[in-house]
Amino acid sequence: MVEKPRDGSPLRAYLIDRYGDLKARLARRLGSSDWAEDALQDTYLRLDGYEAVGQVRNPGAYLLRAAFNIALNQRRSDGWRLSTKETDSLMHIADDAPDALRMIEGRADIERLKSIMAELPPRARNILLAVRLDGLSRAQIAERFGISVSMVEKELRRAQEFCNDRFRQDRAET
Predict the structure, then answer these.
(1) Residue 1: inside a domain
(2) Cα–Cα distance between 96 and 86 in angstroms, integer?
(3) Following CA atoms 17, 23, 24, 29 in sequence, which dihedral angle do they give, to the nearest 10 degrees?
(4) CA–CA separation, 123 vs 145, rounded Å?
(5) Residues 6+ away with beta carbon under 8 Å from 3
(6) Residues 32-52: b if buried by 16+ CB within 10 A, e if exposed
(7) Same domain, yes or no: 166 and 111
(8) Among 9-23, 62-76, 92-106, 138-152, where is mean pLDDT lowest?
């Protein structure tokens, strides 16, 4: 078993926290618990100093794919050939990298959300941003705006409902 990371790497922490599950899943794909353990150890070591570009949406799938690739490379260097079952299992591991279409859609959604938020009254918009971007508590926001916590919750709920409704309306029109 690997020890807790000192560098705060989220992928390393995920690997440690879910090591047993990842090892079991990888062992099923590789057909060997020992190979799975070796591959996860190598994956852990290779994550040293590694920073993911963007946020990994599914760290479990990402780590399984990395460990599986490490195991495959090790088997190749040892002269092993992949079976059809092993190749098929590799093809069913989810790929987290967004394709060009998803990136374009994501950017368009962000731009649409910006324009929808611009339609909100200033206080409601600022409360929504304080919660979602700044991570402030309802009490901190209430103090900042000089209003009650229940008023913050009402404004926040209205702002979120407005954004959701407008987003749905825009999608229905397209």
Answers:
(1) no
(2) 20
(3) 140
(4) 8
(5) 16
(6) eeebbbbbbebbbeebeeeee
(7) yes
(8) 92-106
Residue with tokens 């959701």: 164
Question: How many Å separate Cα 135 from the centre of its chain?
Answer: 18
Query: Count of domains in the chain?
Result: 2
Tokens of 30: 């590789």
71 and 47 in a common domain:
yes
- Cα four-point dihedral sign 96, 101, 102, 106: positive
Which residue in 139, 136, 130, 137 sits closest to 160, CA to CA?
130
Among residues 85, 80, 81, 41, the alpha carbon closest in space to that of 63 is found at 41
DSSP 8-state assignment for residue 132: H
Domain that holds residue 80: 10-91
pLDDT tens profile 147-169? 999 999 999 999 999 998 998 88
Phi, psi of 136 (to 5 degrees): -75, 150
Q: Look up the pTM and report it.
A: 0.42
Tokens found for residue 32: 């060997």
Segment 76-119, tens digit of pLDDT: 776 555 566 666 666 666 656 666 777 777 788 888 888 999 99
CA 61 to CA 90: how far, in whole Å? Answer: 11
